[in-house]
Write a structure and sequence with these properties.
Oligomer: single chain
Largest sheet: 9 strands, mixed
Strand order of the largest sheet: 3-4-5-2-1-6-7-8-9
Shape: globular
Strand content: 15-25%
Number of helices: 16
Length: 431
């Protein structure tokens, strides 16, 4: 089959969780013998090493990332409102549809619709069936995370009525929110399959779009890419790391993995550590800075007063995994409900339990399995108490580690998606 992966942004410009999931699935499909291409948006096309091309649209960049052909559409070609809405450029959609026909794609896997309304419209015009994977809440929520302007978790859009009531912000009007909802509903209804990575996400999409079916298909962990096919708990035991209940070198080794943005809550974790100035611990912060420079300065100012905190910046996936395996506890202090958290499942593969905020799929995951603790979001005092309890009773780490479930492997995730692709094949265009 000829498969097109559609995503809002991609490597090497961006390297978030959705990008990693798309990369994993595209590479698995390629290994399965399919012809695969990726279509994404480039915020700064000039920074991407590749070949400039006027096809399928002037200013596009063609490149290859880890063996995957990628076509980047320049952000400037897309509607201004594409960051928060589903507006499409009719001209871009027409050009993309012609290109899709030339490439004879059998189907598409839509990984994210931000900025890609024109691409989805092109799929529909070209008659290319598509599977939609819902990695966050962009379709029901213009703010993406189902958190309203008051900082409260939203129960759903109510066909745009609640959006207008709880999030009155430019450029949206009540009519605009209602129109956005109808666009999202239409996009989802046109998908051949709608997949959510967790039951948390599926429940909220079912409530937001009643009448549509959403199946749960968790993301998988690429253990081969991360450099380990062995049981991490057995390896840690063999090396003597689990011989004692005490954390490594007398210090509790904490790790934060994620972009340094306000939504991820790193400042909450740093302020929690500030409340434990004499505690024997170390924190490694792994992730790149993106967006609000004021927030970056705020985080740095707090971290610079604490010699126990070290920043590594963005690292390659394998190095992230190796550093993770040398830590005792993952910390995910997100301010918003995460839809899955690939790093949480990679942490489970590494034999490392987690403290997570009490929002979203990660909270449901650690609570259901007893492999960590869900801590009140944005409450630095609660985070300090949770960390102090682990230091005072380090045997909890061993108890949590023993309850870590085996995560789905990316090969298994790809197998399930392959079965969905095959179901669409009879309706796909002939060779």
């Amino acid at each position: 089959m000829r498969i097109l992966f559609v995503i809002h942004q991609f490597f090497p410009e961006f390297a978030g969780g959705t990008e990693h999931v798309a990369l994993n699935l595209a590479r698995m499909a390629q290994r399965g013998g399919h012809h695969v291409q990726v279509l994404a948006c480039a915020m700064q096309p000039a920074t991407i090493a590749g070949r400039a091309s006027d096809a399928p649209w002037p200013g596009c960049v063609r490149t290859v990332y880890q063996g995957l052909p990628v076509v980047f559409i320049p952000r400037e070609a897309l509607p201004d409102a594409a960051e928060t809405g589903l507006d499409a450029s009719v001209d871009v959609a027409k050009a993309l549809a012609a290109w899709m026909n030339e490439e004879r794609f059998d189907l598409a896997h839509v990984m994210h619709t931000m900025r890609m309304g024109s691409a989805v419209l092109a799929l529909q015009r070209a008659g290319v069936p598509y599977v939609a994977t819902l990695t966050d809440f962009f379709l029901p929520c213009a703010r993406i995370n189902l958190v309203n302007l008051a900082g409260e978790l939203c129960a759903g859009p109510e066909e745009g009525a609640r959006c207008a009531r709880d999030c009155p912000m430019a450029p949206w009007t009540p009519a605009g929110y209602a129109s956005r909802y109808r666009q999202a509903e239409s996009l989802l209804a046109a998908a051949a399959e709608r997949c959510a990575p967790s039951e948390f996400v599926a429940k909220r999409y079912r409530a937001a779009f009643p009448g549509l079916a959403f199946r749960v298909l968790p993301h998988g962990v690429d253990l081969l890419k991360l450099g380990s096919s062995a049981d991490p708990l057995e390896e840690r035991a063999a090396s003597g790391e689990l011989a004692s209940d005490e954390p490594g070198n007398g210090h509790l080794r904490l790790v934060y993995i994620g972009s340094v943005i306000r939504a991820k809550g790193l400042d909450v974790l740093l302020n929690a550590l500030a409340r434990l100035p004499a505690a024997p611990l170390k924190l490694t912060v792994i992730g790149g800075h993106w967006g609000d420079s004021g927030y970056h300065a705020e985080v740095r100012a707090v971290a610079e007063t604490d010699p126990r905190v070290a920043f590594t910046g963005r690292l390659a996936a394998q190095e992230v995994f190796e550093r993770l395996r040398r830590c005792d506890l993952l910390c995910l202090p997100s301010r918003v409900p995460e839809s899955f958290s690939l790093v949480l499942h990679e942490s489970a593969a590494a034999g490392v339990p987690a403290l997570v905020s009490d929002l979203g799929a990660p909270a449901e995951y650690v609570t259901a399995h007893g492999c960590g603790e869900a801590v009140p979001s944005e409450d630095a005092d609660a985070w300090a108490s949770a960390i102090a309890r682990v230091i005072e009773a380090p045997a909890r780490l061993a108890e949590w580690r023993a309850r870590l479930p085996l995560p789905l492997r990316v090969e298994e995730e790809a197998f399930f998606y392959e079965s969905l692709y095959r179901r669409l094949q009879p309706a796909a265009r002939p060779e």
